[in-house]
From TrEMBL, chain A:
SUPFAM superfamilies: MetI-like (SSF161098). The chain crosses the membrane at residues 20-43, 86-111, 123-143, 178-200, 232-252, 286-306. GO terms for cellular component: plasma membrane. Residues 82-307 form the ABC transmembrane type-1 domain. Belongs to the binding-protein-dependent transport system permease family. Gene3D superfamilies: MetI-like. PROSITE patterns: ABC_TM1. Keywords: Cell membrane, Membrane, Transmembrane, Transmembrane helix, Transport. This is Binding-protein-dependent transport system inner membrane protein. It is found in: Cell membrane. CDD domains: TM_PBP2 (cd06261).
TrEMBL record, chain B:
GO terms for biological process: transmembrane transport. Keywords: Cell membrane, Membrane, Transmembrane, Transmembrane helix, Transport. This is Binding-protein-dependent transport system inner membrane protein. The keyword DNA-binding does not apply. Residues 1-11 have a biased composition (Basic and acidic residues). Its main location: membrane.
From TrEMBL, chain C:
Pfam families: SBP_bac_1. This is Extracellular solute-binding protein. SUPFAM superfamilies: Periplasmic binding protein-like II. The keyword Signal applies. Keywords: Signal. Residues 1-19 form the signal peptide.
Amino acid sequence: MLARSTSARRGGWSGFQRRYAPYIFISPFFILFLVFGLFPILFNAYLSFQQWQPGTGLGAMKFVGLRNYTDNLTDPTFWQSLKNTAVLAVLSGLPQHLIAIPVAFAVAGVLRRMQHLVTAVYFLPYITSIVAISVIFFTLFSWQYGVINAALSALHHLPLIGGLFPADRINWLGEKAYVQPAIALVVIWRYTGWNMLLYLSGLQAIPKELYEAAAVDGATGWQSFRFITLPLLRPIMFVAVTLSLIGGLQLFEEPFILTNGTGGAGQAGLTTIMYMYRTYTSYSDAGVAAAMSWLLFVVIGALTLLNNRLFGRSGLAGRD
Amino acid sequence: MTTVKATDDRPTPQPRTRSRGQVPPLPQLGAYLLIGLGAVLTVAPFYFMFVFATHTRTDIFQLPPPTWFGGNLGENYTHLMERMPFWRNLWNSLYLAVLTTAATLFFCTLAGYAFAMYTFKGREVLFGLVLATLLIPSTLNIVPFALIMQALGWIDQPRALWVPGMASAFGIFLMRQYIGSSIPRELVEAARIDGATEFGIFRRIIVPLTGPAMATLGLVTFVQSWNSFLGPLIIFRSGETYTAPLALRTLQSVANTDWGALMCGVALTVVPLLILFALASRQLIEGLTAGATKG
Amino acid sequence: MRTMLSLTLALTASTLGMAAAQTKTITVSVFPDLDSVVKAALPGFKKLYPNINVKINSLAYADHHTALTTALSTGKGAGDVVAVDFGYIAKFAEGNGLVDLSKAPYNAGQYRPQFVAYTFPQATAPDGRMIAMPTDIGPGSMFYRSDMLKRAGVRATDLNRSWESYIAAGRKVVAANPGSFLIPDAGEAAQIILRTGLGAGEGLYFDRSGKVLVGPDNPRYVRAFTVAKQIRDAKLDARAGAAFSPDWTTAFQKGNLATEFSGAWLVGHMQNWLAKDYSGKWAAQNLPGNTYASWGGSFYAIPQQSQNKAEAWALIKYLTTNPAQQVLAFKTTGAFPALRAAAGDPIFNEGVPYLGGQKARIQWRQAALKIQPLDVNRLDPVAEQIVNDALNTVLDGSKDIRTALTEAQLLITRRAR
């Protein structure tokens, strides 16, 4: 009798808590977001229609309608910064995955006891502070005195393959054509290990039996990579690529520090976020900067949606 | 844990049938070379950071730069201690990072679980909202952020950073992906039939099975909080409350940066991360192996 | 004069009276190396004002100004005394975040004759508010390697007679010293030329009425870009970019540079770490073409939001108008005093050991008096960025001077409204 009523009550409670549990579970995020996330966004939205120099106090705002938006859209530097951002996102994003996937595959394939150590080693750049990174890469990239140019010149003097390497020193951060590759190199260095970690965790989740069965059926290494590994890596690839895409489009720290905030020769390293930051801090034009952040938001949103359509749907399909 | 053992001890007639054995010698050599080359390139700048920490700033900019440890560590350390209460700053960083990480792990796993395992009204829209917050460049939020914190009276207090910090859209995204792809729904259903409460399912089933993803998210959150700069710059107002990166930046002037002391400080800030990583990555690999056998 | 005196006395008395009543703590927000100067000043200051405690908050140069911008825009969080670098003065002059020091009870205008002439106009907003007190200046100087010149048979006066002779003599110096460069970066020459020969009411980029001066028809700009381009094309520069970049630093340390233009403070760096091994080989001369320019300069200001304005002013006055303190600052970091009386200290008549005993400080002191104040505009940072970018496209050969200046003019005009 007692047991029965408890179980009946439980059924009601169970139904109730089951229905509302997900809302309760996600509520902390949304409450915090409302307080700390939404206000800044609304503030920026409001700001994007005002002319305001931070430093003059909140009372000094002046409504200017859509002018901040039209100013950005007719600003050649804004368009150039978008182009730079796109080029840098691809130049620094794609190689990360092209390197991380084979390396993760190799690590998972041939290493056992060393796996732990190797993973740790590849992850080191991710935890290194940007201050150290900047000093080290400045020394490496230096035009007259840099280690990279010294190495290239040594390679140039080798017989046979010497012709493949440039005869003159490359002014990495001082010449338009090399600024983007130099920045991309640092970004790739910094984040490939992070992607490798993601892929490694994805690889580990693929049941070994699948490979064993494929081997019994006489599949080659390439075939099992192509038909087992790649399809099953899709969900994690989706995560990794989405993160790279969003990170790439918001690239700031590396180009900012490597070019001393100027964008480098020909402004080739000026990303949109950098330009926005510059508009806000050195130009003191907060309204235009806020409008720029909304325009960038639209671009990033559109590209992420596209990525979702192209990649995500099939990737997430395996989930349900 | 038992599953881990099961993999390693699984009786195999010959080592050759293991996945390692399947790789023929030549590609195997190629794989080792690839791994080795990548590892050297990855570690080199990191190594130089420690080397530079033991040299004077004159030496650091020599050509070729020093490749082995020098004898100036003591002096760099002394300079560092003269310029700032470094250990105090390091403690501030640790306090902030630990709180941020713990809070983020709990709330993101909870929300990720909700998005992955429940079908509820508005799920897609709400998840879309979470993702949308990832797309907003935070660099511009300096002024509104400062305004909120002033209104709350949280200036100069660590909670101004860790409370908003735990609402991590990335964390929810990662957790939903992981829980959705690696935990079978049947497991949750079975527990429900056994009469477990929803939070009970979360605590007893989801949390133990999300080890690797938690290790990843925990590490990333910790590292980001540890290295973060713009937030602390707005919140902390005095040398005693500065976090380590903020304090170290005070060594960097336009004209007169003591690079030796700075490198020494940077190297010291990385050590706790290294320790944490040594611990977390062990967890990570164990968790990953466990995940691998579940198939 | 008497009213001024009595006002000062009244102010001092009230400050002292307040101080006697209770101990107050004020916060000074600075950036390095000014933090060392303030630290060194505190013992002397405490003797005069035993009841004012001073707390120093130091942040890196750019971070300090970012944090100050945030504090001023939100109305909270700034120090009681804030350091403002020369380049940021116009920006902070725009709003009402900083106290007008020309008004009572500060009446800073009375100190004007005591300071190097160009510093006060620099600290004054277009509407006449004086928002900061100058503390140090950076009179420009051409440093050169006397041993390299000797090897080439070139005299220092050949280098600084005019920009043409600078380039001609420079070619000889570089030819006679293989592996050397005449100058770290060709852009430096352009920056100096842009800062000299300004007409009345002209600023660097804008005139007093806000008209954009940058353009292909302004001879000052054409000449600046042309000279820089000539230096670059003659392969005379090390393309080291900004001062204190790693390339710049290494070029100094390796002794590969024949000349450098900079503020007098550079000697301290060369002596301590930058070019330790070349003591006695470097010497100083005036800039080429009889030009005078300044490299940097710092100011102190009081934010409106400060609750301790009287104490803050006491400290600022001590830091800027006390000759002994200004001399101490010079000894501490090499910050050249903005206060003229301080520059009369015997130490400025002594030879500089690093420069082979040359009495260079006399030369700098005179140069400081000849520097013209530049009209500042709040859009200077925008224009500076755009002009520097244009200069770089000219130097790397991707655009000709006319095109680059026409485009720069358009870009600046867009922003100037």
